[in-house]
Every structure is written in structure tokens, then in C-alpha cells.
Amino acid sequence: MANFIKIEDGQTFAKEMFCIPQHYEEYVESVMIPKGLILNRTERLARDICRDLSHGPLVALCCLKGGYQFFSHLSEFIINHNATSGQSLPFSIDFIRLKSYENDVSTSDVKVIGGDDLSSVTGKNVLIVEDIIDTGKTMQKMLNIIAEYKPAQVKVVSLLVKRTPLKIDSYRPDYIGFEVPNNFLVGYALDYNEYFRDLSHICVINKKGKEKYATK
Fold first, then answer.
1. Distance, CA of 87 to CA of 158 (rounded, Å)
2. Partners of 175 in the beta sheet?
3. Sign of torsion over alpha carbons 69, 139, 51, 180
């Protein structure tokens, strides 16, 4: 049985069925994953993570900026599960930012903008929380950075994994929310040149949106 929800090619919802901010309505093609479904899947991921990483301190490492919504909700579910299940899992957080996109293209130039001091992960279980994995190059760069600090073990959870011919077949995260088609997605903190992060749902941007918000 697959450990993720697979969104088939062309499987989307009409944007008219959902609340879309007026300033984005004409630039969104459709809704791929409604917020309610995102939250329910995230709660299940939190339960699985607590089950697997209940031994020893856990450092959850958020990949900014696109991962902050997912990270916030996932952390809340982990903390709530801790409180209601009787488990005692020491839980702390840290942040890093990597940039690998120019407009809607994933580039080979992965820039590390944050994460100058990650000594807090040494000897601890680390959970890297990512919004989307496309080619896999950014995450491989991230794993190399974390390895330098000698954590006890590293697990990766990604809300989305994209089906693309550019993806490195040998790499899959340990926990996956949804496998999605090769569309450029925005919303739920995923951006297009820093726009669309304030959409509640994960949506497909249209051609008009790409043109309007492209880097000049």
C-alpha cells in the first residue's frame, strides 16, 4: 500500500467551489488540494512521525519559506499527539532557507540562505520538514549540510513530491503527504516569486499569473 495520497494528472477542483482571495482569482487555474484535506493528511503524518521517532529528543527543522505553513500545522499536531497519547518526546525547532527556483524553473544552483549554526542537531533525531520536493537536488544539498553536524539520525517529511522526469529516482523522503503532477503549484505558503503564499489551498497557477508575477 502506498504511503502517500496520489493526485492523478488532471485531478483538480474548479476554483469557483472555493474561497480564493479576489486579488488572485484571475491568476489561478484550479484548486489541486483543498486546505481541509491538507490538514487531515498532516495530522496523520504527525501520528506516524511520533510513532517512529518517540525515542530521544527530536529537532524539527523547517525549510523556509515555503514550508512554514506545513511546519506550523505539523508541529501543532505533534505537540497535541504528545499531550494526548501519554508519550514524552522532547521537541525543539530550528530553521533553514534554501533557494533553487527562478520564476517557475528549478535551477541547478542551490543557494543556502540560512542555517549558519545548526549545532543544536548534534546527537539528536532530526526531522527535516519541506513543502515540496521536485528534482531532489535541493534536499540532497540539505542532507549534506545536516550530516556535517553529526545528528543521531535524519528523517525527511515533505508535504508534496512532484512527478517529474527531472527528479532523482534514487531519492524519496521518509514521509510524503501527496504525490502530485508536474504542475507549478502555489498556495499554502508555496510561492511564485514571493506571491500566492497567502492562498489557503494548493492551487495551479495559470499562464496569466506567471506572466504578471514573473521576475522582471
1. 24
2. 157
3. positive
Alpha helices in the chain (DSSP H): 35-52, 68-85, 137-147, 207-212
93 bridge partner residues: 60
Q: Which cell goes with 131?
A: 513543502
CATH number of the CATH domain containing 93: 3.40.50.2020
Query: Which one-letter amino acid corresponds to residue 201?
Result: H
CB 59 within 8 A of CB 77: no
Name the residue range of residue 178's domain.
5-212
Q: How many domains does the chain have?
A: 1
Q: Which one of 9, 104, 116, 134 is the catalytic residue?
A: 134
Angle between helices 35-52 and 68-85 (to 10 degrees): 50
Distance from chain centroid for Cα 99: 13
Q: How many other C-beta atoms lie within 10 A of the C-beta of residue 28?
A: 22
Active site residue 134: yes
What is the pLDDT tens value at each position of the chain, 216 positions in all? 569 999 999 999 999 999 999 999 999 999 999 999 999 999 999 999 988 988 878 899 998 888 999 999 999 999 888 777 767 778 888 888 876 555 555 555 555 565 556 788 889 999 999 999 988 888 888 898 889 889 999 999 999 999 887 655 567 899 999 999 999 999 999 999 999 999 999 999 999 999 999 976
